[in-house]
Design a protein that fits this description.
The structure is a homodimer of 205-residue chains. By secondary structure, chain A is an alpha+beta fold. Chain A folds into two domains: 4-77, Glutaredoxin; 87-195, Glutathione S-transferase Yfyf (Class Pi), Chain A, domain 2, CATH 1.20.1050. In chain A, 52% of the residues lie in helices and 8% in strands. Chain A has helices at 13-25, 44-49, 69-77, 87-118, 125-149, 162-171, 185-195; strands at residues 4-8, 30-33, 58-61, 64-67. In chain A, strands 2-1-3-4 form a four-stranded mixed β-sheet, with helices on one face. In chain A, helix 1 links the parallel strand 1 (4-8) and strand 2. In chain A, helix 1 crosses helix 6 (162-171), helix 4 (87-118) runs antiparallel to helix 5 and helix 4 runs parallel beside helix 6 (162-171). Chain A is globular. The two termini of chain A are 24 Å apart.
């Protein structure tokens, strides 16, 4: 595989997903850090040279650039056990990855960023007004995951896949956004299973 | 392939994506309609029997159910020319599909639903307050697509892929949400190329 460079902000769970996939697969990953709170991904250099969308993560593969965490995880994991061999299960894994980006991350990750990282005093009026809606949608996403995990050890098939890694990243720090994980016992046990996997790495390192 | 049933609302662009993929590939698709404006996807029957997330589209494959439009499109298109054969291009296609669900659909599709379907008078205060932010983010997504298409006939590789189909669905009706597509000339020509493909079907039929 060509040289891999992760353009990231270490506080981002979306970036952590890619580091977690690389760790599970034993792939070497060079890291370049940007501080999103200082606008370091909106500079002309970043927009022209890394990603026109001005956001991290971006996985650099040789001299090509891949934005969106799910796409980068897929690129790294193709041909590995992290992507199920069965056609329906493979699509079902993508279902959970799209679920994460549409129903989970904009709520669970955003409230962590707003309340746990920026802090309530630093929010705009529009952000403050959006908190209750994001809270309700985030709780709904966590409840749906918990109900699924009542009958399954992992999200798809019999072992961990990219779906679990994508959902682990922001769920395991959901308390930083004010979500009470003790309300979701099956989710809690799944978080434990994920952290106990060989190859697992913590978010901060 | 097992019998395919699309659980859908005909006004939804996310459902149209799946019908468009099936049309391009000549796959028969039975259709079951639900009216999301009447809450028909939040009934106990739908939640227990079709999708616990209470949303359409859901692709039924035999007796299994697949939510999230991108996952359903992937399931149908595996092994076809709508998914690039090259590993990097395949991941880059997923990048555009995740971009669509995160940066495009919540803005371009939501404003079409709020302003073009519900109508401004029917919006809640929270929805009304969210319009300017969604407008700006939707214009940014369209501008990014337009810039990419300045140098490419299709989003990835040399021909149409699931990335084009995913992005076509809500872009071609963006004017219904008040977006002025004449500001994006490359986008306009790409919409024309997509509609001229053999196998293309319109959204309403």
């Amino acid at each position: 595989m060509e040289k891999l460079i992760l353009h990231e902000d270490p506080i981002s769970g979306n970036c952590y997903k890619i580091r977690l996939v690389a760790a599970h697969l034993g792939l070497p990953l060079e890291r370049r850090a940007y501080d999103i709170r200082k606008g370091e991904t909106r500079t002309p250099e970043f927009l022209a040279g890394v990603s026109a969308n001005g956001r991290i993560p971006v996985l650099q593969v040789g001299d090509r650039f891949l934005a969106e965490s799910g796409a980068a995880c897929w690129y790294l994991a193709e041909g590995s056990p992290l992507i199920p061999a069965d056609r329906f299960e493979r699509a079902d894994m993508l279902h959970w990855m799209f679920f994460e980006q549409y129903h989970h991350e904009p709520n669970v990750a955003t409230l962590r960023f707003w309340l746990g990282i920026i802090g309530e005093g630093g929010l705009s009026d529009a952000q403050r007004a959006a908190v209750p809606g994001r809270r309700a949608a985030g709780e709904a996403a966590l409840a749906l995951m918990d109900a699924h995990l009542a009958g399954h050890d992992f999200f798809v098939g019999g072992g961990p896949s990219l779906a679990d890694i994508a959902l682990y990243a922001y769920t395991h720090v959901a308390d930083e956004g004010g979500f009470a994980l003790e309300h979701y016992p099956h989710l809690g046990r799944w978080l434990g299973r994920m952290a106990a996997l060989p190859g697992h790495i913590p978010m901060e390192e």
